[in-house]
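Please go through this protein, sequence plus structure tokens, and consider how the sequence yields the tokens. Keep your notes short.
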Amino acid sequence: MLLDWLKNPGATRGIHLAGDDGAWHFTSYAQLAADTRRIANQLRARGAGRGQVVSLILDDPYRFVSSFMGTLLAGAVPAPLAPAAALRGTDRYVAHLGRVFNTANPCLVLTEDDHAGLVAPALKEAGCESAEVVCPGDLADPDGRYDTMPGIDRRDEELALLQFTSGSTGNPKGVRVTWGSFGANVEAIRRWLRWTDEDSFASWLPLHHDMGLIGGMVMPVTTGTDVWLMRPNQFLRSPLRWLECFGRRGVTLTTSPSFGYAYTARRVSPEQVDGMDFSRWRVAILGAERIDPVGVADFSALLGPHGFSVRTLVGAYGLAETTVAASGVPAGRGSVLAKIDAAELRDGEPVPVSGRGVLGEDRVGGNGWLTGCGVAVHGSELSVVDADGAELPEGHFGEIRLDGRSLAAGYLLGPGEVRPFGPDGLHTGDAGFIDNGELYVVGRIGESVKVRGTSLYAEDVEAELNELRHLGGSVECAVAFGTTEEAGHVVVFAEGRITPDWLSAARDRVAAQTFGALDVTVLRGSRGSISRTSSGKPRRRTMWERLLRPGTGPDWTVEFGSLPTAAKA
């Protein structure tokens, strides 16, 4: 299924790449197929054969797509990694690559010339000096010697893809996606979104990350759907250009974290969308992070007068361990909101739901408002379990567990060191509950703290702080809770310009959220100080650990409170 598109690639549909010149540059699927065959044969000629890992570190979207598909066609295993721009700091990036290479043990690294100088020392640090470093441009075939289709039979249980987790809660691990689970998830997404030949797709997400890789690239290519691809930095410079894909070109599908919709609403004015028509836009997936109902409502208000419907908004839940999609709201139905009292959540006990709403229609925010993430996608199983692993009835709070055809074959922790998931599936480490048949995700279990018998999640506190934008400044926040001997401390890492009004309100809200039982510290740093994964999630645990080891991270200024004891030493 994943390579069937190569048998009859279209000449009129393909990939539209956003150029830095403001234009869109088109490459047909017929041309992509030829490039895929060439790369596949050249990789095999260089020894990248069946089951061997090929690491991809490519910033150029077309080179990434053709190299990824070429690696699959060669029978090798692509392992996409974040380019240097996604992880700040050269030394940190090389160290990160070294850890990943040590685990993946690639036979070859496909990267661009400006990354070769970083890849070589990382391979040496990992003891992988024998791996060849190749630029896709070096795989040219002017004589057409390699324009044939390699013939390889692939079994469902064989490894197809190695997805390295983004490291939001620890060191990256390689998720072992088999051909069976990969194909099953692609088929599940087709069914979920009711994908047809009339659809088209637009994305600004990084292609090395599961959401952008599968949703923004694999799905359009394997379905022969026209796709418009932007780089993340192009989107940040001009979200209007992304909107024009839907309002002027009639694109029908996309996926993005909640941040993307809220950011667009802040950066694009009503005058800029005058004359656009968003009535053909039928699916806008929201995933990868806690959904911000306020930002999404602002987005809907911006586009609503021009044909955008709140039924387009599709809440979803996914992770690399299920290839990408685990659950989603049925396309065209719209997403619902539920209001809970986080202070009343207890493991294994009923969840009190005190309010309801509609995503994109009700401008409600702050702690307690959650967006429904739908039902398990086709071929997948979803349940909520208590601390002992026993399945809970609907409406009870616990840990989310997943199983089914899309589930990967466990983790790669080191060369030849495989850790399968348990016999009862994947215990995700995410807390949530099922209400009216629909999943609600509360937050990471590893990023919460018990306060007076209640689990308090970092995302909840961050949601409260996001409500303070009206007080001025330009603040982005991450919240980290102390652990072990520093368990009574919560730190707000705030980057950007802080106003006195914001600071006063922020410390009051955090104190209220923590019942006044934790010491509160607010730290200010310059733009870029918050450590993030390659997909943009705050690395709260990493930031906390660096805070306790002065000199190992960015400089922070104490705006309120005091540093944890270990950080003062």
